[in-house]
Amino acid sequence: MSLPGNDTTRDGPPIVVEGLHKRFGSTHALRGLDLTVPAGTVCGLLGPNGAGKTTAVRVLATLAAPDAGRVRVAGFDVVREADRVRRTIGLAGQHAALDEGITGRDNLHLVGRLHHLGARGARRRADELLDRFGLTEAADRLVRTYSGGMRRRLDLIASLVTRPAVLFLDEPTTGLDPRSRNDIWSTVRELSAEGTTVLLTTQYLDEADQLADDIAVVDHGRVIASGPPERLKATIGTRVEVTLADSGHFATAACVLSALTGGESSLDEAERRIAATTDPDRSVTLPGLIRELDAAGVATLDAALRRPSLDDVFLALTGRTAPEHPAGSGPALERTTR
Amino acid sequence: MTTTLTAPATGRQGPVAAEPGRLRRALSDSMTLTLRILLYYRHSPGLIAASLAAPLAMLLVFGYIFGSAMQVPGGGSYRAYLMPGLFVLVAVNGVVPSMVGAARDIGRGVTDRLRSMPISRPAALLGQTLADLLVSAVVLAMMVGVGLTTGWRIHDGVPRALAALALLLLFRFVMNWVGIWLGLLVGREDIAGQLSVLVFPIGMVTNVFVPTGGLPAWLRLVAEWNPISAVAAATRELFGNAHPLGADAPWPLRHPVVATLAWSALLLAVVGPLAVRRFTTHGR
User: Fold this and answer.
1) CATH number 3.40.50.300 given to A15-101+142-233
2) I need a surface site. Which of A214, A216, B104, B284 has the fewest CB within 10 A?
3) Is the ipTM of this complex over 0.85?
4) Quick one: DSSP state of residue B17?
5) A237-307 fold
6) What is the pLDDT of residues A314-326, one digit of tens each?
7) Best of A59, A114, A145 to disrupt the B interface by mutation (most B CBs within 10 Å)?
8) How does the record classify its membrane topology (chain B) (predicted)?
């Protein structure tokens, strides 16, 4: 049993969500979300725009109140013990939540003071973080002059001022160039190695794949599949795509692909493309594919094996493709149940 | 006093409200957020000059152009009548930076970041208003300097003049809270920017620029009950400047200092809690 008072975390998994429901007006954003994240691991919440990922993070970070369900962070209830949760967590959102009109150093300094590190403690911590994450040179410039990648990095650093036990990252790399994305990724890895529990949301399977110990696929406000990336990908199979030189070969090619993958093939007549996804327990190689097509007398312009994408995960898990949404328009995916 | 606030040593999790040092932490949060706004001004000192621009432009247009053909009822120079009104406009303009700032913070995610931290909610907003108070004290002092060089005078001694300035700062403080509430309500910087244009007509339908005696009856009613008119009348009274009243002027204009205090208390009592509540529950 833990004592009340000075403890910053309690025993048990740092993130426990049970049956979480959240509505915004007529939008039912979360419909019974369940999630447990063990200490020191990275969990990737994967799903399309409007799936409820951001809402889940907002509830976990005490920014939104759950309508139903139990949500505990570091052992504290997000509603009744919100202030305790706030002392334990770090949050970096989709935009860089920084003051543009002041310097990077001052931004960190203010965050430290708001976490009651004291003026000197806050300064020391700011210097430490700037040094560690290679921002010392830019520290005394106004944030207004920073590049997008630098802002996001500073925003992430601002969430680390208190050495949070639990870190929430809401789409930390959306809109970043590859180099900045790699910077964020290596920071997340370092933090995880130091024992920080991380929950990150992403629309990219490869990001979840790179960073997460466990992936939870979210759709319509619920977790529809979860597990280590390897296991998740193993349930999906590889996507085979062939572009034909002659549309008269469609039927033959479909037979070859079905025999090879064990899956049904889909046709795109305009593009003369035929595609299929392998059964999870089969493996297909590119030379093997070409050989079989050649043997059947199918002339190909292009053939490719694609690693599973989020679309494939969705197709496999829900039988439909992941809907595309312009960023920020949540509700289109949702339909109210009456 | 502190001993009674100590959290229970055993049993369930003590409520956070009972922790010692909560008030001290709230004060520290306010000071930090005051510092935040002051740092803004340090890097953009032009902002202070910008907040002088509107009252100076009006001094030129009304004081020197329209004023050249104006007679104040009961005599006296129009510029001496106008000057305290411009001080009041400085106070009323407090709505603008607070409203735009609060809306910008929402748009940039700063509000969410603050709300995810263990800081006192009222303190978070108080910090912004205190910073503005310091800045507007500087702006007012500069305006007083402008007034003194353009022929306006203090007639009733320094203590009453200081009381007038204190009253102006109080009203600016109230306007800051109104602005924060509106900014949180609107939530978008561009809309907040558009709305701030409305401050001008609201400031016009008052006794700031002309005595209300000559207005059409319906407009006069609105102008005389506009809280801004009470502030302007109180300022003129305390500086010892003329403020001609119609014989049937309503109570707030005949007792402008008390009316200003009452309006301020009322507005603050309504808007303060609304703003804190809006901040606390934004996006919940």
Assistant:
1) yes
2) B284
3) no
4) G
5) Alpha-Beta Plaits (3.30.70)
6) 777 776 665 544 3
7) A114
8) Multi-pass membrane protein
